[in-house]
Amino acid sequence: MVHSRHLFHRRLFKSDEDCPLYLQKVSEQILRKCHGLPLAIIAISGLLANKEKTEHLWNQVKDSIGRALERNPNVKGMMKILSLSYFDLPLYLKTCLLYLSVYLEDSTIKKKGLIRRWIAEGFIHSEGRYTAYELGERCFNELLNRGLIQPGVTNDYGIVKSCRVHDTILDFIISKSIEENFVTVLGVPILTIGNQSKVVRRLCLQGVKKRNSTVLTADLVFSHVRSLTMVRGLLEIPSLEEFRHLRVLNLKDSSELKDHHLENIVRFFQLRCLNLKRTGISKLPEQIGCLGCL
Q: In sequence order, which residues have a C-beta less than 8 Å from that of residue 74 and are 6 or more positions away?
C-alpha cells in the first residue's frame, strides 16, 4: 500500500506530505478500490489531476469506481476504471485517443506523425494564434498527463518525441473504437465484425493473407473510408479504387506494395497524409502534384 500511495501522490502532489489532510481519507479509499494495480492508479490519478482538489469531487470519483464495478461484476475492474477515464475526456480528446487503435501492440508512435494524422483526419484545426500542430501537441501532452499514453523517447530538453500505449489500454481503445464504429480492424481473428456497421469510416488491415482475403469483401462499404492503414506484411493488396474519400493513406512497412498500386492515386483528391516509408514503391505517378490537399 505504501508504494501505491507514493505513486498516487507523486502524480497529484509533489510528495506524500503535500496531500492535504482533508483528502487523505478519500485518497486511501480510492487506492483500496484500485487494488494496488499501477495502471489503475495512474489512470485514476490522471483523471483527478484535471479536477479541482475538493473532497466532494474526489468522493464522486471514488463512488463512481464502486458503482462501475457493481454494475459490471463480470468485467475486469481495470477496464471499468479506464471507462471512467475515457468518459471524463472532452470530445476532441476521445477522438484523438480512439485513433490510436490503428497502431500495433508495442508500437513506438512518433509524436509528429501522430499529430499530422490527427490534423489530416480533421480532428484538430488551427484556432486564433495557435496552429493546428501546436494544438495537436497540447492534445498529445494531455493524454500523457492523464496516463493514457506512456512517454517514449525524449530529447535533450526533456520534450517527449514518441509514445507507447500500454497493452491493456490499447485493448480498451480497440474495443471502444469497434463499439463506436470509429475504426474497422480486419485480418485479426479475435476481432470479428459482429454487429459493427457495414459502412467503414477508418480501415486498418493487419496481415491479410491470400487465403483469408475474403475479409476484404465481407459485405463492407469502403466508399466512405477516410483513413486506410496497412500493417503486418500483406500478401493480398486490396484495390484502392473504391477508397474515393481517403484523407490518410498509411502504407508504411508494406514492402509488397509496388509502383502500380498507386496508379490511381490522383483520384484521392482529399488526400492529406501519405506515408510510403519502407515500401516497394520506387516512383510516384506524375499526377500526384494535382493533389492540392497533400
A: none
Pair 287, 187 in one domain: yes
Number of domains in the chain: 3
- Tally Cβ neighbours within 10 Å of residue 117: 23
CATH of residue 130's domain is 1.10.10.10
Closest to 230 measured CA to CA, from 103, 112, 99 = 103
**152 domain-assigned:** yes
CB atoms within 10 A of CB 136: 23
Cα 149 from Cα 172, distance rounded (Å): 12
Q: Mind listing the pLDDT tens digit for each residue in 141-197?
A: 999 988 899 999 999 888 999 999 988 888 889 888 888 889 888 766 545 545 566
| Separation of alpha carbons 236 and 281, rounded Å | 16
pTM > 0.85: no
Domain carrying residue 216: 183-294
How far is it, in rounded angstroms, from Cα 273 to Cα 275?
Answer: 7
10-47 pLDDT, tens digit each: 777 766 567 888 888 888 888 877 766 777 788 888 78
> CA 122, CA 116: separation in Å to the nearest integer?
10
Q: What gap in Å lies between CA 157 and CA 159, rounded to an integer?
A: 6
